[in-house]
Amino acid sequence: MTTDTLPTESYVFQGTINKKPPHIVSGKGMRMTVEKDGKIYDDILDAVTGAAVGALGWGDEEVLPIIEKAAKNHTYTFPSIIGNKPSEDLAKFYIDNSPPGVFAAALWCCSGSESNENAMKIIRQYQMERGCPEKTKIISRDTSYHGFTLGALSISHCGRADLFKEISIDQTNTCLKMPVCYPYRYQQKGETEEEYSQRLLDSLEKIILDNDPKTVSCVLVETLPGSSLGTAPSPKGYLSGIRALCNKYDVIFMLDEVMCGTGRCNPNGKLNCWESFIGPEDAPDIQTVGKTLGSGYVTIAGVLVGPKIRDAYINGSNAVFGSHTYASHGFNCEVALGVQKKILREGLTANIFKMGNLMGSKLQAALLKEDNIVGDVRGIGGFWSLEFVKNKTTKETFPVELDIGHRFQHVCFENKLSVMGMQGNADGVAGDITLLAPAFIITEEDVDAIVERIVKSVEQLSKELKAEGHW
Q1: Which end of the chain has the smaller Cβ count within 10 Å, N or C?
Q2: Mean pLDDT computed over 206-229
Q3: What is the C-alpha separation between 97 and 269, in angstroms, rounded?
Q4: Out of 3.40.50.1360, 3.40.309.10, 3.40.50.300, 3.90.1150.10, which CATH number does the structure's domain 347-467 have?
Q5: Tens-place pLDDT, residues 73-124
Q6: Residues with Cβ within 8 Å of residue 207, at least 6 apart in sequence
Q7: Mean pLDDT, the chain, whole residue set
Q8: Cβ(84)–Cβ(77) under 8 Å?
């Protein structure tokens, strides 16, 4: 089916500047209708929900009344002057659905980048409130991504960050980088998970000591990396080991769960991804969230603040220096709370964990032992990725110019499947992955359809690359 002739020039400054990308026409549940180059594509199975955003799927009929009620109730207020009840209720909901005592307060904002920016400022003021202004250094990881604002890019390490390095925060004295946690490529032959974790922890401790612990403010990692690395689960002892080092050297432990959190990868039917790896005793001091919080129906993200940080503020100035215009926006918070209550009521967090793991295991069984370009299938719960390699034994990457990740994305689209292709996972430039992050409403029938279309697309691209002499 084709549409009438449409202008191909885009008025939106994003993507390919002078060309319109595919446009969404409608969505219902797990499926979308998309217009691309004048052609309508029906029944596109959405296996990534934009950028791991969707929880309830598209066109949920219960969300519209939630939105209508929130719009009728809403009167905008500037949060540093007048607050609102929905922001308080959403904060309490998140705190109550996390292990007791882990979080004590929350700040709501409009994007994951903004949440990481705010977390950096909160941590900085925390150090000043308790009389440690010399603690300025932030340690994050190689091959990481925390958002597209300059501050968030400064604590990232990827091709997107490299483009702006000349105007980023000092990478030598302030935003330091520790080795990436990437078992598929860097866990040595014969090395156990615990041994690999210890090797990484030893590297982190050396960085802390070399930089003087009195000047180190924070250690920050993505609990389950997304577009930077491709959903590489942490090996045993890694996150708890970071927590121990932070305790030892009086450093804040921060987790970025913007992409992997808020129910996408929780084993207990709750919200936090880190509960898949560590217990409440090793929980972060501060955590960023976003994506599925509003399920794409509103623009919302947040910062969850632990009691240690909150208490330092109360015992100090008892004030936050500065605010965003749309921070803790009442309309966004009320819609997000309605979305989260529906997810909890219908057990959708437990569903995505079960169905996501089923999807991952079926993809591993279907792809890893076959002669194709998939070197690894990894993830947990509702967040998985495929890594493409030229050689499964050596894990050699494809040449960057072939852009296999995005090419696979296009092949999938032609096979009526929406995925996210990315590059740069291996070293920040080379390496190709595809991300999968379906909606929480996914059924076993949907799982089988995703697996079928993924396998078909892998076989198709593998044959094309072989015919072209690239594989």
Answers
A1: N
A2: 97
A3: 9
A4: 3.90.1150.10
A5: 999 999 889 999 999 999 999 999 999 999 999 999 999 999 999 999 999 9
A6: 139, 176, 178
A7: 96
A8: yes
pLDDT of 243 reads: 98
Q: Do domains 65-345 and 347-467 have the same CATH topology?
A: no
**Is the full-model pTM beyond 0.90?**
yes
- Domain residue extents for the chain: 65-345, 347-467
Residue 8 has pLDDT above 80, yes or no: no
The upper half-sphere exposure of residue 412, i.e. CA atoms within 13 Å in the direction of its Cβ, equals 28
Q: How confident is the model at residue 3 (pLDDT cuts 50, 70, 90)?
A: very low
Tell me the mean pLDDT in the region 448-460: 98
pLDDT at 321 over 90: no
3-state secondary structure the chain: CECCCCCCCCCCCCCCCCCCCCEEEEEEECEEEEEECCEEEEEEEECCHHHHCCCCCECCCCHHHHHHHHHHHCCCCCCCCCCCHHHHHHHHHHHHCCCCCCCCEEEEECCHHHHHHHHHHHHHHHHHHCCCCCCCEEEEECCECCCCCHHHHHCCECHHHHCCHHHCCCCCCCEEEECCCCHHHHCCCCCCHHHHHHHHHHHHHHHHHHCCHHHEEEEEEECCCCCCCCCCCCCCCHHHHHHHHHHHCCCEEEEEECCCCCCCCCCCCCCCHHHHCCCHHHCCCEEEECHHHCCCCCCCEEEEECHHHHHHHHCCCCCCCCCCCCCCCHHHHHHHHHHHHHHHHCCHHHHHHHHHHHHHHHHHHHHCCCCCCEEEEEEECCEEEEEECCECCCCECCCHHHCHHHHHHHHHHHCCEECEEEECCCCCCCCEEEEECCCCCCCHHHHHHHHHHHHHHHHHHHHHHHHCCCC
Burial 177-199 (b: 16+ CB within 10 A, else e): bbebbbbbbebeeeeeeeebbbe
Domain 65-345: CATH class, spelled out: alpha beta
Output the six-digit token pair for 45.
Answer: 């199975």
Q: What is the mean pLDDT of residues 345-353?
A: 98
